[in-house]
Amino acid sequence: APDLEQAFIAYIRDAMDSGPSDSPAPARSFAPPTSGSKVENSRAARRWRGLGRLLAYARRESLEILRDPIRLAFAFGGSALLMLVFAYGITTDVENVRFAVLDLDQTPESRAYLREFSGSRYFSEQAPLSSSEEARQRLQANDISLTIEIPPGFGRDLRRGGTPEVSVEIDGTNPFRGEMIDGYVQGVHAGYLRSVLARARPTSTFRNLVEPRFRYNPTFESVYTMVPGVPALLLILIPAILTAVSVAREKELGSITNFYVTPTTRFEFLVGKQLPYIALGFTNFVLLALMAVFLFGVPLKGSVGALALCALLYVTATTGLGLLISSLTSSQVAAVFATAILTMMPTLQFSGLLQPVSTLEGPARVIGAVWPTTYYLHASVGAFTKGLGARELVFDLVALATFIPCLILLSVLALREQDR
């Protein structure tokens, strides 16, 4: 028959044409209890049928994703676009700091001192100052971020072997940037005085200073931290939103009623909806990793296989989080807002993206310890910048694997029976 309705009508017509049967009904007989092997075969058959239903839901969800260009564009284009925005737009690098000088000494020593700043890539010299009042006005107008005032007698004190003081004013509107500028100024100042005093007093203990060197990121560029860290944010935001919307959409449109009459369990229904988004999230990981290596030039020094396994476990956990949120919401708008808030806030504040988890205290430390991004972020940054291998990432793998059954179990319990 062309459809189920026509088949049903034809079946009823055949039954009506055959008429009532005059043959006696067969005698009922009770079969003996089934053997153990038959019971095991029956259980195995039920398991296979459950797996078939689960894969059927996964196939149906995959077809819906492929037929929805908006979701596909959001899944892949959104990840790539946000990667570009975050990697290029969020930076902690402090370079080309605009500074102006009020040189009240005008000696070869003062000019040599200022050349240490103008010759550095961290500073960009602007027009000189004529007075302290002009320095204040230009700082207030955001024309410059740093003023350097060299007092009279700077060169004379330096020739005598002294350590003259220099007045520096820094724009502290952005505390982090202000601290970085202060550190750079202190470094240039100490480096110049050390070289001068070393020539004037070869036996001076001034040369015995601590000389810090940056490991893993010798150029001290934020791209080597931001680029490996951004996928941790994107792989929890986008897969979780898509998974949450997929279940909430069934509730909002009423199509979830189609599953009421099926023998499908809540586990089969939820995991079947989840599988396509796990594949989509892992594909996003591959895309973002390729962008990090070939577009941003951040080499992957550690174990590729261990990082890929971490990513697979991570997207499984994040899509499980989306299932949990969708089980508690009844509309797509609520699912999107709830997922965005519940994923972004802990990820930004407590996962180590902005500050190390070890610096957190109290409830913040607890949230960081029970949040999956904490472990994937450590694995991603470690594999890219520190060259961590599979042995060093074992703890992260175990932690991420632990989140998966917990989130799926909570999702199954949160999904009400009538919403199955």
Describe the overall structure.
This protein has 420 residues and is mainly α. 64% of the residues lie in helices and 5% in strands. The chain is built from 14 helices and four strands. It has a four-stranded mixed β-sheet, sandwiched between helices. Strand 1 (97-103), helix 4 and strand 2 form a beta-alpha-beta unit. The longest helix has 31 residues, at 36-66.
Please sum up the structure shown:
It is built from 14 helices and 4 strands. The protein has 420 residues and is mainly α.
Descriptive keywords:
elongated, mainly alpha, 420 residues, four-stranded mixed sheet, 14 helices
Order of helices and strands: HHHEHEHEHEHHHHHHHH
For the biggest β-sheet, the strand order reads 2-1-3-4
Mean of residue pLDDT values: 84
Largest sheet: 4 strands, mixed
Total E-strand runs: 4
What low-confidence regions span 5 or more consecutive residues with pLDDT below 50?
none
Number of H/I helices: 14
- Shape by Cα distribution: elongated
- Into which percentage range does the β-strand content fall? under 5%
Through-space gap between termini: 30 Å
Helical amount: 55-70%
How much is the radius of gyration in Å? 33 Å
Q: Which class do the helix and strand fractions yield?
A: mainly alpha
